[in-house]
Amino acid sequence: RWQKIFMIPLWSKVAVFWNKMFLTIIVLLIILFLDAVREVRKYSAVHVNEKAANVNSSAFDHIQNLYLSGFSLFLWLVLRRTITLLNQLAKEMTSHAALEMQVNDATEAAKKYLAKIERSQEALSEKGNGVKKESTEATNEKLRKEVELLKAEIQKTSNALRKANNEVAAVKKQSEGLKREYDNLMKEYEQLQ
């Protein structure tokens, strides 16, 4: 499903501006967070010096503002990381499917060539040890080289498929860890509220 979403042409047009929007919002959230830290420090210093009753409610509001801006900043970074991981996972799944198709095609081609070699060897053995023994040896040598090339190609594509499987598994594991961390943070956030 995510693969289909990331392949929508509108997404590729928005993705160009996504980094700029992300940086703009992150800078804005950092400024808000730093301002909240400054206000909390200011009112905590006033609270220690004056111990006024009306300062407590104002300080409490600024502390809540600090928590809100901090969690917003953190959740924005988590959202960015989640989208990045989903995008990587979609790309890896696409390349994984393409590699599987390539391996299947190479295997089928190798089977066809092996069947063709066996048929030609049977036909040659039926003819017997005739006059063209030298040409059959040359043909056999040529066919052996083709088989070796096909085996090397199959090995290469199977290695690529194995690597893609490992990468997909790593991305899935990383996204599961991120999900667990996000759930834990949401529980902590609910407890703080």
UniProtKB/TrEMBL annotation:
Q: Which Pfam families match?
A: Bap31, Bap31_Bap29_C
On whether Transport is a keyword of this UniProt record, the answer is yes
Q: How does it sit in the membrane?
A: Multi-pass membrane protein
- Gene3D superfamilies associated with the record: 1.20.5.110
Q: What is this protein called?
A: Endoplasmic reticulum transmembrane protein
Q: Write out the similarity annotation.
A: Belongs to the BCAP29/BCAP31 family.
Annotated InterPro entries: BAP29/BAP31 (IPR008417), BAP29/BAP31_N (IPR040463), Bap31/Bap29_C (IPR041672)
Q: Where is the BAP29/BAP31 transmembrane domain?
A: 1-98
Q: Which residues cross the membrane?
A: none
Q: Chief subcellular site?
A: endoplasmic reticulum
- List the record's Gene Ontology CC terms alphabetically: endoplasmic reticulum membrane
Q: Which domain of life is it from?
A: Eukaryota
Which residues are in coiled coils? 96-188
Name the UniProt key words of this record, in alphabetical order: Apoptosis, Coiled coil, Endoplasmic reticulum, ER-Golgi transport, Membrane, Protein transport, Receptor, Transmembrane, Transmembrane helix, Transport
Every copy of the Bap31/Bap29 cytoplasmic coiled-coil domain together lies at 145-193
Q: Name one GO biological process term.
A: endoplasmic reticulum to Golgi vesicle-mediated transport
Q: What does this protein do?
A: May play a role in anterograde transport of membrane proteins from the endoplasmic reticulum to the Golgi.
| Compartments it resides in | Endoplasmic reticulum membrane
Q: Does the keyword Transmembrane helix apply?
A: yes
